[in-house]
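re: that complex we talked abt at group meeting.

here r the seqs, copy pasted straight from the sheet so there may be weird spacing, ignore it
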Amino acid sequence: MTDITALHAFTTQVRRDILRMVHRVNSGHPGGSLGCAEFLVVLYQAILKQKLPFQMDGLEEDLFFLSNGHISPVFYSVLARSGYFPVAELNTFRHLNSRLQGHPTTHEGLPGVRIASGSLGQGLSVAIGAALSKKLNGDKHLIYSLHGDGELQEGQNWEAFMYASGNKVDNIIATIDYNGQQIDGATDDVLPMGDMKAKLLAFGWDVLEILDGNNIDAILKGMTEAKSRTGKGQPVAVMLHTVMGHGVDFMMHTHAWHGKAPNDEQLAIGLSQNDATLGDY
Amino acid sequence: MTTYINSGSKDTRSGFGAGLEELGNKNDKVVALCADLIGSLKMDEFKEQHPKRFFQVGIAEANMIGIAAGLTVGGYVPFTGTFANFSTGRVYDQIRQSVAYSGKNVKICASHAGITLGEDGATHQILEDLGLMKMLPHMTVINTCDYNQTKAATIAIAELDGPVYLRFGRPKVANFTAENQHFEIGKAVLLSEGSDVTIVATGHLVWEALEACKALNEEGISAEVLNIHTIKPLDDEAILKSVRKTGCLVSAEEHNYLGGLGESVARVLALNHPVPQEFVATNDTFGESGTPDQLMEKYGLNAASIAEKVKRVISRK
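got the structure back, here u go
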């Protein structure tokens, strides 16, 4: 049985990590990071079958690819607290000579990262390649990926959607962080993307929605359901409805905190809303 | 002067196809991807013999590069195949982030490079690809000169752990290097010894350099010819050893002079042993429709042009 209380506590600590990392270096992307905290905690603590120490080839384990690399703070925090590298290293985020680059990279050898991301729209293709690699190796484990909704404005995604369904790549679960926000404003204002579910269905994907993407129970149920729908001849997409900035009241429901760091006072408020459950780094 | 015999003109892309076929049979980690140009890239045999290791991605080159990067995770060695234009300029950011910066073991194999693509015209005749690719950190850049060398290079790059750009072409050109040769990445090949001038050539211009060497020899000019199949990493030592003897150099390539082999060589000379240099290359221009021979002549990329530049560079010594 999954310990929901423990996952809640884990998420609260991750939120503190995100705020403190971004505040310390006065740069980074807290909004999307906070919105995806529950998802990545559930993924790494309850869904992924993973092996440590980290091996790039990832044989006989599930693999995760982050396509929207700007939410590196949440990725780094969850990786560190899942045992991939020392938690204390979070203190080096975006600093000179750090393995924790502004956007994730394999270049500095940070365990847990299998592809560089940051320039948007590339991760789905890479995840599909890894899924094909699993099939060639006779490895039944799954490929998971995460994408921003605004990121789907990049055309390469649609090449990838078409390829995966046309070639029955059914060992992949691509999750879309559906928060409706991007740097310049609401996605509907910047470039309306219409009925995303209908588009994904039309591109031949099996689509399911997690309507409360900041609810640990809902994510657990949704991702378990998504797993059960793999291996059936279709790639699986999850539309994860989240709130950007979730868990810090003044950062929620706005794109303002997409790529902006809190000041000292704002940090204190944000931390007061999230207890240090596992101990700060 | 060493003379070379054309054993029968062949296209370099067929050398790639033959190399890939051989690789497919001896290395089950080699996989191949193509963006709707299987026939043009001569990938038919690999596809027939290894259907599970062949991926037709359609007209979607960005996705192809990404999938190739992903296939390396799990131990595969992907070879992507499409025209040089669509292998580089069209997918530069995908190569930069998902392959080069990510350190993925992807072999980007590019046919129909340069102006000798011919009648299709400038939309397809990329003359900037060497520059684009050599600027990417850790990217190995190779431009082979004939069928035999392209086949050998295709087999050799599978053994290198890291991203490679392998450039070859469409037209049938002289096949004069040894069959089943050993291809050493990063090592220039001294084709003919001489004392008056060094000619460094890459790709289709290597045969033209040999033709120029022959013509110059009849006029009493002794040219040393180096085949620079690997533009990056460049064989600095071979170039410097030659110019220390000859005192001047002509570079020859089917590429814009900006960003090509010539500029890489000029840097080596400037840093170590400055001597006069002339460039046989396109002059910051797009190409146009025509037969390969017509285009080589119009854009000054043939033996006659090399010989002319040799005389000019010698006069500057």
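couple things i noticed - Chain B has a mean pLDDT of 98. The first helix of chain B runs from residue 12 to 26.
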